[in-house]
Amino acid sequence: MRLEELPRAEDAALDFQALEFDYVRSADQQGEPADHPVVVVGAGPVGLSLAIDLAQRGIRVVLLDNDSRLSSGSRAICFAKRTLEIFDRLGAGDRMVAKGVSWNVGRVFLQEQEVYAFNLLQETGHERPAFINLQQYYVEGFLLERAAQLPLIDIRWRNQVVGVEQLEDRVRLTVDTPEGRYQLGCAYVAACDGSRSTVRSLLGLESSGRVFQDRFLIADVQMKLQQPAERWFWFDPPFHRNQSVLLHMQPDNVWRIDFQLGWDADPEVEKRPENIVPRIRKMLSYTAMKDVEFELKWASVYTFSCLRMATFRHGRILFAGDSAHGVSPFGARGANSGVQDVDNLGWKLAAVLRGTAPDELLDTYASEREFAADENILNSTRATDFITPKSGISRLFRDAVLELSREHAFARTLVNSGRLSTPSVLHSSDLNTPEAEEFDRPIRMGAPATDAPVQLSNGMRSWLLRQLGQNFTLLLGASGPSFATSTDWVRDTVDLAPLKVLAISPRGQTGGEVVDVEGLIEQRYGIADGAAILLRPDGHVCARWQQMDASALRAAIKRAMGHVEEQQCI
Questions:
Q1: CB-based contacts of 116: which residues, under 8 Å, 6+ apart?
Q2: 438 exposed, middle or buried (CB, 10 Å; 0-12, 13-18, 19+)?
Q3: Domains of the chain: which residue ranges?
Q4: 89: helix, strand or coil
Q5: How many CB atoms lie within 10 A of CB 27?
Q6: Is beta strand 131-133 parallel, antiparallel or unpaired with respect to 499-505?
Q7: Does residue 192 contact residue 46 with C-beta atoms inside 8 Å?
Q8: Alpha helices (H) in 406-512, listed in sequence order
Q9: d(CA 494, CA 312)
Q10: Residue 273 has pLDDT above 90, yes or no
């Protein structure tokens, strides 16, 4: 199958796992290879997302994958609100949410009894749920659908990178195919080729960190359960003593079950259906679902580890996703952090390639996402230590915390069944404009934009994040007729980067591009008349003003674009 022949997935019978894509001889194999702006290695969720992001910004992309199929089994299944908002910008979010199982509630059990429940999205006024559960092959399939609409993306299946050479002004790749090898030149390489990254190995680089002495079995089980779409986590359940179990609903009546096995378990033995099926039957018998028919669809065994590369940038080669960092699955921080890597990298790489930003801007990709990776690793390590205590004292502490959590809210803050993925706040980024005075604003410097319902000038209802520009966006408080609704004074910023000015009228007033119909923009951003917040292309706050002028805006955009000479003049 060729990419342009990819069927639409409205057909419930479409099985993305069964699709196989044709190897096609590329133009670079016909004669003298051309130099390309970017080569992305790896057509998983991270590589596909980056290719789409760059193509939407007008950058040609070659996407190499050593396989000809999408992933099999559920693998990454929990996609967070922030990631869904990125998928919206990439043109694939509606497909994800329509197919996925939306959920906000999680429940924690100790042995037979529920300890407590939590809601990850307690407030209203957000378009997207806290999480959806969606098998990775659907995510890849929907991203492929979007990629097929973008002629600037050249996907090459069964193209395996076997050599990497960094030259002064470009990278030369050696690529192996069914027809033999060829060479490919490019300005930059984005290595999105997973935890066993070939690119990383070819450069002689390593990831370091901590490998935990525990193993978990993942089982995808198809069955019709009368269960709510919630995350259920058991500590020491009667059907799996002294271990932990996690249950998630997925689309197509498929349920994901994670069984803790212990370090001594033999992965090959544990993956055998004759050993998995009795575990599932025992679990169902203790949860009043013993008569439910089920079918085992897929299984795997994984080891807990928290690893990352020392730096995500090596010259003209940038690492993203699992090739750069890896965490234990509990907390859903793997795929989500990889897509958020892309959200950070795409606009910066495009700006450098267009010549509107210096190459040093890419250093901030590395520093910002290394900071985010350290946050994820810290949270994942704490969750792993709580879930799998390695001493009697640790086990006593954990069980005491769980017992106290039945009645006392303070103890629930200590329970850690996987602190679920949240976006990093880049409060110390060099791209942020320092503030001359402290602002009492609900949204922090470096935080990603948060959603709110709005009314458009044509009277239609929509969402704030849907109105942001592909590049920089200025959120501007506009009460009545004022200079704030005019863009004349910001025209001189266009030579730096395109800027969208979004004038926001308070509830009950008009005049701006959007109206804060429920007052939630004021509540979440603290924007008053004449006040402004500058958002980077990835939606993170990089400047805030009580009152602003064109020179301050221009300086802030220059700083956010990595022009270091301007940073010393603010």
A1: 107, 108, 405, 406, 412, 415
A2: exposed
A3: 3-22+36-101+130-208+307-378, 453-567
A4: helix
A5: 9
A6: unpaired
A7: yes
A8: 409-412
A9: 30
A10: yes
Record the tokens describing residue 55, joined without a space. 């193509």
**CATH tag, 453-567:** 3.40.30.120
The reported pLDDT for the residue numbered 547 is 83
Q: What are phi and psi of 342, to 5 degrees?
A: -60, -40
Quote the CA–CA distance of 218 and 514 in Å, as a whole number: 46
DSSP 333-373: -HHHHHHHHHHHHHHHHHHHHHTSS-TTHHHHHHHHHHHHH
> Which percentage of the chain shows pLDDT scores above 90?
61
d(CA 207, CA 303): 16
The terminus-to-terminus CA distance of the chain in angstroms comes to 55
* Rounded Cα–Cα distance for residues 534 and 529 (Å): 15
Q: Which long-range contacts (CB under 8 A, 24 or more apart) does 261-267 make?
A: 261/214, 261/215, 261/216, 261/217, 261/301, 262/214, 262/215, 263/213, 263/214, 263/215, 265/215, 265/217, 265/301, 267/215, 267/301
Query: What pLDDT does residue 568 have?
Result: 41
Calpha distance 389→394 (Å, rounded)? 5
Tokens 């795929």, residue? 335
Contact 369, 312 (CB under 8 A): yes
* Residue 205 backbone dihedrals phi, psi, to 5 degrees: -100, 160
pTM over 0.85, yes/no: yes
Task: Give Cα 27 distance to the centre of its chain.
Answer: 33
Q: Token pair of 25, please?
A: 């001889």
Q: What is the CATH number of domain 3-22+36-101+130-208+307-378?
A: 3.50.50.60
CB contact at 8 A, 306 and 373: no
Closest CA to 16 of 252, 300, 337: 252
